[in-house]
């Protein structure tokens, strides 16, 4: 148990490095809202509070999307005070599935440009 977990008493379950499965990652990235969250985290390259994200869905749906991303191993979450912080597990994903995240992010950016131009 980490010091942060001891102080807050709120630990969130995450898969260990070796437990991350390709099919779970692909499933997590297949949803437009979850892909949007991952794109924003990748652009910022730092942890962001869940409240930072303005998604056009209910709070409970937003919570669900973050849980799917966390439980698949795409993001890591922790509490800092009252804020739930989220960060992309880029190093883990790049080590397990080289080029996958970069390829998905490039494809998502191209799709966004294409759809915005239509």
Automatic annotation (TrEMBL):
<dbReference type="InterPro" id="IPR001845">
    <property type="entry name" value="HTH_ArsR_DNA-bd_dom"/>
</dbReference>
<keyword id="KW-0238">DNA-binding</keyword>
<dbReference type="InterPro" id="IPR051081">
    <property type="entry name" value="HTH_MetalResp_TranReg"/>
</dbReference>
<dbReference type="InterPro" id="IPR036388">
    <property type="entry name" value="WH-like_DNA-bd_sf"/>
</dbReference>
<protein>
    <submittedName>
        <fullName>Helix-turn-helix domain-containing protein</fullName>
    </submittedName>
</protein>
<dbReference type="InterPro" id="IPR036390">
    <property type="entry name" value="WH_DNA-bd_sf"/>
</dbReference>
<feature type="domain" description="HTH arsR-type">
    <location>
        <begin position="14"/>
        <end position="108"/>
    </location>
</feature>
<dbReference type="InterPro" id="IPR011991">
    <property type="entry name" value="ArsR-like_HTH"/>
</dbReference>
<keyword id="KW-0805">Transcription regulation</keyword>
<keyword id="KW-0804">Transcription</keyword>
């Amino acid at each position: 148990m980490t010091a942060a977990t001891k102080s807050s008493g709120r630990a969130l379950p995450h898969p260990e490095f070796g437990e991350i499965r390709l099919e779970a990652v692909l499933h997590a990235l297949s949803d437009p809202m979850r892909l949007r969250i991952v794109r924003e985290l990748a652009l910022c390259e730092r942890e962001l509070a869940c409240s930072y994200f303005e998604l056009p869905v209910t709070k409970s749906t937003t919570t669900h999307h973050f849980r799917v991303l966390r439980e698949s191993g795409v993001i890591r979450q922790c509490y800092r005070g009252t804020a739930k912080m989220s960060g992309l597990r880029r190093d883990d994903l790049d080590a397990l599935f080289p080029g996958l995240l970069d390829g998905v992010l490039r494809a998502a950016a191209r799709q966004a440009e294409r759809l915005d131009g239509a």
